[in-house]
Amino acid sequence: MGHNATRSRPTRRAGRRRLSAATVAVATALSLLTASGAAHGLTDHQAEAADVSGGAVASEHTGFTGSGYVDYGDAAGGYVEYAVTAARAGRHALVFRYANGTDADLPLSLTVDGGRAGTASFPATGSWTTWREVTTTVGLREGVNRVRATAATARGGPNADRLVVDDTDTEPPTPPTRLRATGKSATSVSLAWDASTDDVGVVGYDVYQHGQLMTSVPGTTLAATVTGLRPDTAYDWTVVARDAAPNVSQAGDNVVVRTDAAPPGDQPAGSPSPSGDAVATPGVTSARGEPRPGAVTTLLDGADVPWGVAFLPDGTALVSERERFGIFRLTREGKRTDLGRVPGAQATEGEGGVLGVAVSPTFTFDHFVFVYHTAAAGNQVVRAQLVGDMLANWTTILGGMPKNRYHNGGGLRFSPDGRYLFVSTGDAQNGSYGQNLETNAGKILRLNPDGSIPPDNPFPGKAIWSYGHRNVQGLAFDSRGRLWATEFGNNSQDELNLIERGGNYGWPGCEGTAGYCEDSIAPKMTWPTSAGGPSGLAIIDDHLFIGTTVGKRVYRLRIDGSDAVDQQVYFHGEYGRLRTVVVDPEGDLWLTTTWDLDEEVGNDRVLHVDIEHPGS
To answer: Which long-range contacts (CB under 8 A, 24 or more apart) does 595-598 make?
Structure first.
């Protein structure tokens, strides 16, 4: 208890309005607490034992831990200060347990030894007896640190129950620098880089080629050679560093290296199959009335990596441009109207930026638009209102998802009943995230439209709907309301999955059907990564249409029970890398191209594909 503290009960607190549990809206980072917390170096600090100013220790509301909690006064400046002993210097996770029965966020300003350490958000929990956790990270020095949480607004702070400090290493290594090519041949590239630094130590480096893990070397090795490449082909290389936790660095600078031409007389292996308007799987006959792509019309030239497409009630589309950070409206006649940039959006020089877009199922009444984008603190889902020709009133409904140069996910899709927003994320080039239920990376998430967690999600208090994913982008629902998803594999198999509540889809141990897959759900279809890169996904009359980047084609499969059968291929090589596939209000397809491997800006298109139903 601080010498300025008061233990008298503030009378103003009693006037705070209580809300029903049904209004709980918790937009927090996931707690790092586990049942085996002691093994993770967790230390518990009860708020009633800390130094308190501008508040009082109370026990009126049930559900607290320890002997009580701190009731902040209804004024700015009150604080709880904890004495935190850290066994090592570096970033540490702080897990605050709190209750907030008001109808507003009650943020706390954080300092460590008097130095500013950021502000943490404490959203309403629904009542003073409903306790939740908020997690943030701060830098601590070895030894005793004074961590102070100060009420930042005139409404004071939440009821503070305890602070748990996780001493587990959460500081990633610095990115490797000065990546360079040191040699090459027709089928190999040799690379070298300068060492990363880490507060504990670098244990390994992973070498990626445009998001595909090609090889790994120990942390003491600063070079690698990748073999088995194609002659006369440009490859885009990056390297990330790992520590033992494992924390993964952001990718360092990239280098593009073209392999040498093949010696005369040598035929490169893996030549692509001939292109054609439609290539049916041998032995498959078409059913009457099935949806088939027909005439293709260019709606818009000159876009730059158009990534997300969603339709407004009037039939016009909202389209995001990944690296211009903007959203524009596009009519069926090809008229473009820019609606503005997404605040705080950042690129990653790879697959990050402004990605998925979704329109509120109740848009006529609320004018809400949802956007998935990369920001300074990670990937996040934000909500805006379309007012005339401008997007305004931006609000973050889910933040803090790990980001990296590649594997940022980005898909958004509302459930058929309009009640839930599904979000696909990537593993941020850290494969361990796929099986880690304490992070939203490498997952498919399910949220209420306000960002709160539905109470019937499979993992209580978590947004996670399914896990064990590497990089999911395409999401779509079939006529039975089941969710299908496309997923980028690494070096062997891309996947089409039928998503089950709480399901484990195997990554990183299992890729497609290869690896340790015993406890995971098998994909409904796989493709070699050389012919896949499945991004866009749309369903028409229970036929799946899948746009591919690497394969530069659209796959069509028919849903038969719980299987995907009768594969056909359309547009192979005709339009380049295909990113997004969506169904418009008239039942036709819109496709976007994303030439995101070249150096030319603004050479992408939005295409309209007429869907025909022969025999209907």
So the answer is: 595/305, 596/305, 596/322, 596/351, 596/549, 597/210, 597/234, 597/236
Distance CA 5, CA 80 (A): 10
Q: Phi and psi for 364 in degrees, rounded to 5?
A: -55, -30
Residue pair 161/98 in contact by the 8 Å Cβ criterion: yes
Taking CA atoms, 37 is separated from 43, 48, 163, 165, 167, in Å, by 9, 22, 14, 11, 11
Residues 407, 427 contacting (CB under 8 angstroms): yes
> What 3-state class would DSSP assign to 179?
strand
Tell the residue number behind the tokens 């502000």, with chain if given.
119
Residue range 222-253, pLDDT digits in tens: 999 999 999 999 999 999 999 988 899 999 99
**E-assigned strand segments in 322-389:** 326-330, 336-341, 354-359, 368-375, 378-387
- At 182-206, the pLDDT tens digits run 999 999 999 999 999 998 899 999 9
3-state secondary structure of 63: coil
Query: b/e string for 279-296 if b means 16 or more Cβ within 10 A?
Result: eeeeeeeeeeebbbbeeb
Q: Which helix (H) or strand (E) holds 366?
A: helix 363-366
H-helix or E-strand containing 118? strand 115-120
Q: What whole-number distance in Å separates Cα of residue 89 and Cα of residue 430?
A: 23
- pTM of the prediction? 0.72
